[in-house]
Amino acid sequence: MKRISLTQYLVEQQRQSNALTAELRLLIEVVARACKTISHSVGKGALGDILGSADTENIQGEVQKKLDVISNEILLEANEWGGHLAAMASEEMETIHPIPNRYPMGEYLLMFDPLDGSSNIDVNVSIGTIFSVLKAPEGMGQPTEQAFLQPGTAQVAAGYAVYGPQTMLVLTTGNGVNCFTLDREMGSWVLTQRDMKIPEDTKEFAINMSNKRHWHPPVQRYVDEMLEGKTGPRGKDFNMRWIASMVADVHRILNRGGIFMYPADLRDPASPGKLRLMYEANPMAMIVEQAGGAATDGHGRILDIPPTKLHQRVPVFLGSKNEVEVVTRYHGE
Ligand code: AHG
Ligand code: MN
Ligand code: MN
Ligand code: MN
Fold first, then answer.
1. Binding site, annotated residues for Mg(2+)
2. What are the residue ranges spanned by the domains of the chain?
3. Which secondary structure element, helix H or strand E, spans residue 99, and what is its range?
4. Of ligand 1's atoms, which has the minimum distance to the CA of residue 211?
5. Does any ligand 1 atom lie closer than 6 A to the CB of residue 117?
6. I need a labelling partner for 130 at 20 to 30 A (CA). Which of 48, 88, 116, 120 fits?
7. pLDDT tens track for 96-145
8. Phi, psi at residue 201, to the nearest 5°?
9. Residue 59 dihedral angles phi and psi, to the nearest 5°
């Protein structure tokens, strides 16, 4: 079988469509290279002094793991000098990271969750990196936070790397979803799945059940009905999976269907959910929609939400179209 590298794939995309500019191609390759470096660190584990806590707190109020900080640094360093970016923003940084003025400024904005699934780092379970690319508004000088507050529909590319038994890169530039596997010996990304599609129906759901008592009634109803199985209103038995790394849960859904939920809930004070719109919900929603699935916040399409702040949190329901439709309908009843 002829091997197609990420570079070859991107060059061919660039020839075919005007959407993929040379600058965007460079951006994607640089992000992919950074993910390769992160993957290498992840693989070293205790031997690389990358496990455990960094004893600092991020803007989310979470204690940072060493690998959260290391991955953030790797992505910043890799993307600073190429001239393809106007600024970056990350889960691990309070505000945006402008490009230092010793480097030229490009026209794209990059956002990332440098290390997704932090609670799984120290137990050797799959983790990942999520990224989202926007175009900087025209005629803008030094970008501000405001420049990033564009709806998900404005994304020109989105993707994630999953560091599991294999390291994979899943990518969309608005023209379907493709998956690349890292050839560790050669150090190159090889196209291994073309045009991934999420089945419209599923018998599998993913939610953190330990929060059940806090859920809003529509989510209670939806999950209760699934749990009733064959003899309940849904007329079939459902299976449950929860990895606690969004990348790994979404990757499973891309491969065999399912619905992933991180709802808002009634905790005191009421929680808007845990996941962040700009670097978790939006990129995953773009990937899922490009693969024929759906992604809502329980009411409307995630990609249509007008962001109000960089670290905004949103409820997330995504995956197999028909299931996302049911739980979204329940929210409206
Ligand atoms: P992060 O590690 O980037 O902070 O994100 C963790 C997120 C997401 O990956 C996962 O789906 C969810 O948190 C798990 O939450 P619970 O701890 O409630 O299971
Ligand atoms: Mn975190
Ligand atoms: Mn995350
Ligand atoms: Mn993270």
1. 91, 113, 115-116, 280
2. 6-193, 204-332
3. none
4. 18
5. yes
6. 48
7. 999 999 999 999 999 999 999 999 999 999 999 999 999 999 887 889 99
8. -115, 155
9. -65, -20
The residue nearest atom 14 of ligand 1, judged by CA position, is 244
Q: How far is the CA of 114 from the centre of ligand 3 (A)?
A: 8
How is residue 315 written in tokens? 């409820």
ipTM here = 0.99
* Per-residue DSSP letter, 218: H
- For domain 6-193, give the CATH number: 3.30.540.10
Give CA–CA dist 95/331, Å, rounded: 33
Domain 204-332 annotated CATH 3.40.50.80: no
**Paired tokens of 52:** 């455990």
Q: Which residue from 274, 284, 318 has its CB within 8 A of the most atoms of ligand 1, so it is best to mutate?
A: 274
* Crossing angle of helices 282-290 and 246-256, rounded to 10°: 10
> Mean pLDDT for the chain?
96
Nearest ligand by distance to the CA of 244: 1
3-state DSSP assignment of residue 1: coil
pTM of the predicted model as reported, rounded to 2 decimal places: 0.98
The neighbouring-strand residues paired with 204 are 239
